[in-house]
Backbone:
């Protein structure tokens, strides 16, 4: 099983504060002879007027020496997990959780926008200091 991301616990607390119930930590996906581990799975409780929502969240800190290298790895991992998840659990949406500072810099640059748009990356932006979700970009 992979190591937890630097902001894993902060994202868990942010999701719980936002009303989500963590269902898997991590979410194990098996496809063929391979196992994959998405950092988290969560759901909103069912409400009388609407269906509950189910998500899987891959947390990324972008603390490596190169944000571009971190972006390469995050995009590849996101696309791989999204495709496997679409076959195993198509009702669950995959999101990439990124810190607010990274969203305001890297993901607002043309290269970040290109990846979000062309690779259909859904983002959950969080503030690691306040442990709050600041934005959902689906």
Residues:
């Amino acid at each position: 099983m992979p190591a937890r991301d630097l902001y894993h616990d902060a994202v868990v607390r942010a999701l719980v504060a936002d009303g989500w119930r963590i269902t898997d930590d991590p979410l194990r996906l098996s496809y063929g002879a391979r196992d994959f581990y998405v950092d988290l799975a969560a759901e909103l409780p069912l409400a009388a007027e609407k269906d509950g929502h189910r998500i899987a969240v891959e947390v990324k800190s972008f603390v490596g020496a190169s944000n571009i290298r971190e972006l390469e790895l995050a995009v590849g991992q996101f696309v791989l997990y999204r495709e496997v998840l679409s076959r195993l659990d198509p009702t669950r949406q995959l999101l990439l959780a990124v810190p607010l500072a990274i969203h305001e810099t890297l993901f607002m640059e043309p290269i970040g926008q290109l990846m979000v748009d062309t690779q259909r990356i859904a983002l959950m932006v969080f503030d690691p200091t306040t442990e709050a979700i600041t934005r959902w970009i689906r």
Q: What stands out?
A: The domain at 17-48+69-100+110-137 is CATH 3.40.1350.10 (Trna Endonuclease; Chain: A, domain 1).
